[in-house]
């Protein structure tokens, strides 16, 4: 295998998640929830310096960009900001990368109807807030980057909160919002 090169600059804001045989995170499990699988890899590397790997030394690369909130109202904004745990906490040695693609029918809806499904019908934010500060998160958008997913969702938590995180994902997957999810891969990781 050729050595990993990181010479292509793709813009400072873009984060690349690289599946391969090296990286700071070891992949414990990859579960395809719906839609096509991702090829199996043993490690994940996260590159946030605006470059991406070139060559053949990886199995897949997923790219996303942190963005502004589309749906949160003032009250939710304040709750999210007040309780927001930092990424990279030493005790949070478990992580999940969950790439998600929503259907054309979701994207065809106007903003207010998407908000109503996400929160008024599905309580995504209300449910999620109950798992803070145990779970730290970051949402990367990629719908407009032309990749295979619309969102790359990233979560970090301590090993004793694995069960809690499973409960959270199940509650969201049981919601109305998830009827619009047509591809989802759940990748569980531990820090090496
Ligand atoms: C720690 C618990 C969680 C909290 C507090 C939380 C909070 C939020 C918030 C506030 C948004 C809306 C952002 C906006 O206004 O644009 C959002 C979006 C999103 N979340 Fe969560 N979330 C949590 C857990 C999860 C989990 C476990 C998943 C995946 C299984 C997930 C998947 C997503 C996706 C895909 C979006 C984008 C939805 C869209 O724009 O269509 N979230 N989340």
Helices and strands in order, then pairings?
Layout: E1 5-9, E2 15-20, E3 25-34, E4 43-47, E5 51-54, E6 60-66, H1 74-82, E7 94-102, H2 104-107, H3 111-121, H4 124-129, E8 136-141, E9 151-157, H5 162-173, E10 181-191
Antiparallel strand pairs: 1-5, 2-4, 2-6, 3-4, 3-10, 6-8, 7-9, 7-10, 8-9
The structure holds protoporphyrin IX containing FE (HEM).
Q: What does this protein structure show overall?
A:
This protein is of the alpha+beta class and 192 residues long. It is 22% helix and 36% strand. The chain has 5 helices and 10 strands. The strands form 2 sheets. The chain has an 8-stranded antiparallel beta barrel. Strands 1-5 form a two-stranded antiparallel ribbon. The protein starts with a strand and ends with a strand. Bound molecules: protoporphyrin IX containing FE (HEM). The site of protoporphyrin IX containing FE has 22 residues, from strand 7, helix 4, strand 8, strand 9 and helix 5.
